[in-house]
């Protein structure tokens, strides 16, 4: 694949990543609220699991678009910045793995709440919920490290505008603080949209 085509594909992936984030934000706010509690999630899984299933499917799709961007930036920066970009890409890959594990376990929990499916024991559900939380936090944390590396490298090499890179650095820093995940999602939508425009314009 030529550099121009790879850039265009990555630009489309960035726009899709932003769109998926926007849909995720809408579903979260409209169905779960700003700070959903476990009891609310459990009741939703029993009575109307569609929003939860949709969120897990959005995570899976987002992991694909994220992987496209991770590969793009690795190939773009590896010649002159191999050391930092290698570790950043590893963090990005770990973020994708954590997100997929989070999505599939969460999906199994939601489906287990259906009356048609043999329910899990309460202790099993509690353990799986803890795993979902841990991998969810891990995904955001590793992704934050990736944002920091990519945007710091882009700033150092003057690849993108300073304002774009500083937004990405801020996104990376905030991603390291788990309670601010909703702000992370908002900034990610803006950053990915901006990145998509940059890549498709040039």
UniProtKB/TrEMBL annotation:
Keywords, sorted A to Z: Membrane, Transmembrane, Transmembrane helix
Record has Membrane as a keyword: yes
Transmembrane segments: 12-32, 52-75, 87-110, 130-150, 159-177, 183-200
Designated name of the protein: DUF4386 family protein
């Amino acid at each position: 694949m030529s550099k121009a085509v790879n850039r265009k594909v990555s630009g489309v992936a960035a726009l899709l990543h932003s769109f998926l984030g926007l849909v995720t934000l809408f579903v979260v706010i409209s169905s779960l609220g700003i700070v959903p509690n476990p009891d609310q999630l459990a009741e939703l899984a029993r009575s109307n699991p569609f929003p939860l299933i949709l969120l897990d499917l959005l995570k899976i799709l987002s992991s694909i678009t994220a992987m496209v961007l991770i590969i793009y930036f690795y190939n773009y920066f590896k010649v002159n910045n191999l050391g930092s970009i290698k570790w950043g890409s590893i963090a990005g890959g770990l973020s994708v793995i954590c997100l997929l594990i989070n999505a599939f376990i969460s999906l199994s929990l939601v489906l287990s709440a259906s009356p048609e499916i043999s329910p899990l024991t309460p202790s099993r559900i509690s353990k799986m919920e803890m795993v979902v939380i841990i991998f969810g936090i891990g995904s955001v944390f590793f992704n934050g490290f990736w944002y920091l590396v990519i945007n710091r490298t882009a700033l150092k090499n003057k690849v993108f505008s300073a304002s774009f890179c500083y937004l990405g650095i801020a996104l990376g820093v905030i991603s390291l603080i788990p309670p601010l995940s909703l702000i992370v999602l908002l900034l990610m939508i803006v950053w990915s949209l901006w990145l998509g425009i940059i890549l498709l314009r040039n």
